[in-house]
Amino acid sequence: MDSDRRGQWLRGVLDICVLALLSEGESYGYQLAQALDAAGVGPIQGGTLYPVLLRLQKTGLVTAQWREGSAGPARKYYRLTDDGYAALRAGGSSWLTFVRPVNDIVTKGVTR
Amino acid sequence: MNADDWLRALTTELHQRRVAADAARHVVAEAATHLREGGGDPWVVFGPPQQYAVAVVESIGTAPGPRPGPVRLHAAGITKRYGRQTVLNDATLTVRAGQIAAVIGANGCGKSTFLRICAGLMSPDAGEVTVSGRLGYCPQSGGTADFLLADEHFVLVGAAQGVARGPARRAGRAAARQLGWEAGGDVQARHLSGGTRQKLNLTMSTLSTPDVLLLDEPYQGFDQGTYVNFWDQLSRLRDTGAAIVVVTHLLNHLDRVDIVLDLTPAQVSGRQAPSVQGGHR
Amino acid sequence: MNRLVVVAEMTMRELLRRRGVLLLLLLMPLTFYLIRRDAYLGQSVRSLLLGVGWAVSTAALFATTAAREVEPRLRLAGYRPHHLYLGRVLGLWTVGLVISVPFFLLPMIDGADLRYGGLAAALLCSVAVAAPFGMLIGALLPREMEGTLLLLTVVTVQMLIDPAGSGAKLTPFWSTREIATWAVDHTDQGYLSRGVLHGLAVTALLVVGVAAVVSVRLRRRRHLRHLPVG
What we know:
heterotrimer; A: 3-stranded antiparallel beta sheet; globular; C: elongated
């Protein structure tokens, strides 16, 4: 896939993806990047991910805390706030509302 | 450039963009952790330090600069003629504590004259200058004594304020170090390189902890590193509440100043810098 | 007081580091003395004194010109004008006294029949006048070159002029000459007292002149208002 285009799509939805992943439990930057990659979204670079996390933290959708992991260095763990859950619900459903018709259109076009 | 260099560069970039010190530390630490766990070239993972710093600033903004304090320098309606030629026409500049003003303009448009008038070294044909507090002035060149050592310059300037020799020398050397210069040697000023002599010149003007600091293109002969140190030093002095006026013909650092006075004829005006970084107005 | 001492000290340090210039300056009184040595002792000693006066005033000229660009910033740093010119003149007087010592000893070793108290007084006069004289010229003329030429002219005139003539009293080093006459020719006390009086008056006048020029140059300009930090 054209990675430029993928980047553009991701920019619009990365914060929702991050919120969604954090809704499963607290996590840190590197783990989030790996989870996104494993889910098939593709590799996410730190330069893209951390600014998103910083913005979410600044707007109060996540809180962050530096903590020593069970094994390994101190990491900055992010956790969803109540506002974050609310933002995930609102943002997530509007994303779905958006992609459903897009999928329909594209599917029709591709399978014709 | 290895990861440590990259992180150091990022630190500098964040500092220069006036990201709050605390936030900057977290950003750098988090990037370091990520690089340690995932490996990889920071230039690929995060991109150039400058670009990443920009992204960080877009996300979290910058520290609110210390609010500009009371007016320290007010030059109003400064007019100066040499014979029939009018060099300065009604130039006006107000600088508050915690602000940097750049005086720019083409060669010969009276930048140095304006500064000398502000320092009271020259009388204008019209206009008034009000200075609050102590004044420091760094001439373009020639403000040093050829046959004296750097230490002796510090003692000489220190004595003016009643500072004893030892403390004056220590203060001078510490200020010189901020510019990346170890000033304690036994080299007479005339044997210093041009750039180093300018560092001495500049150090002398900051030594008396002035409330108003007037600098006339003080960076001639500086190498790139010193030039960066110089602007960092200015930022530090500003953050401690100094009002600073810098004459400059280099426009690439105007994003780090709060006020720009363009003395180019026909549009003599004091205007706010168009791109002040970080709410520092 | 400390400010005066520091300015005086730095003036001395600067001067003493100009070794080449100092040596050449000291060479002048020495050659003056040696050239006239065989003819008439009085002329020889007078030349020596004039040479010391020339050396000290030239040193003062150099010191003043060199300080021209530094002084405004020292003024801004907190010195008052009188710290600067008095400190400088003190430093120059000290250097002058030090370089006078060998020239005091020179005739003594040479076995000259002199009133040595008179020679000392003449040297003192010479140094006292020379320092502010060189400073005044340095303050008035923009470059060392012009100053040096002017000093040379003054010294030459001083050497050639008839000390008894009416115009001679207007020359700065007339006092030295009068006292030297007293010391060499064993003339009456009138020479000594006239000389000392002239020397004191000229020194005072020159210091006042320097003070005036420096104070005007480093004055508080009227357009600039200083407020304390409130």
